[in-house]
UniProtKB/TrEMBL annotation:
GO terms for biological process: gluconeogenesis; glyceraldehyde-3-phosphate biosynthetic process; glycerol catabolic process; glycolytic process. The lineage of its organism: Bacteria, Pseudomonadati, Bacteroidota, Cytophagia, Cytophagales. It catalyses: D-glyceraldehyde 3-phosphate = dihydroxyacetone phosphate. Substrate binds at residues 9-11, 176, 216, 237-238. Involved in the gluconeogenesis. Catalyzes stereospecifically the conversion of dihydroxyacetone phosphate (DHAP) to D-glyceraldehyde-3-phosphate (G3P). It comes from Cecembia rubra. This is Triosephosphate isomerase.
Amino acid sequence: MRSKIVAGNWKMNLNFDEGQKLTSEIVNMLKDEHVKDVTVVLNPPFVHLYPVKKLIGDAPNLFLGSQNCSDKASGAYTGEVSAGMLASFGAKFVILGHSERREYFKESNELLTAKTRQALDNGLTPIFCCGEPLEIRESGTHETYVKEQLTESLFGFSSDEISKIVIAYEPIWAIGTGRTASSDQAQDMHAALRNHLASKYGSNIAEGISILYGGSCNPSNAKEIFSKPDVDGGLIGGASLKSRDFVEIVKSF
Ligand code: PEP
């Protein structure tokens, strides 16, 4: 059975106290909920990671993730943070290839292969983001476009390695816009990506890979989106900054 995952992407939001408050609220709320079969991941900015890890403590099913890591292992790369550093204090996940990093920091498919390599070599689970801009969706070539992102960044990894990667499909036109993909649009793309993974790695491997949906997911639409057979959870931006909304989304399966 595939893991059900809800990951919160705080992006570059919240000061130290706000981050502590949000984490404590989520930890407390999740204690009272029966969501044991859902893996919940908090992905704050780097400066929050260690204090958030301390607050998570040994809460079951709640994990720490980063929003990025370096493509290098160590050395003279001022301002970078390595996957090994993140793993050394208990981070378990790392978001890679978010469209904001692709667009504003010019991260290429090739660079993302190197970052994924670093993550896997250090025992982190990459949450590998892919997704098309609006003009590609409107031209009808969105499946080809997104499949190519996976092929170019990930298809050099072994079956064992690909099994350790989580995919997040995030149509760019739905991120932070309030315009979510319909559950059918999400399902169609997720099924296409799973078939694409199966064409390279076989259906057994593809059936085991969690594919998350991201893009204006909120407590009102999560249940419908998560009900689709190839949607295994969500990568949540804006709504992950409000404890009640985030926990409601976790409870949407
Ligand atoms: C994201 O940034 O990964 C995201 C899905 O953002 P939002 O939920 O705000 O659209």
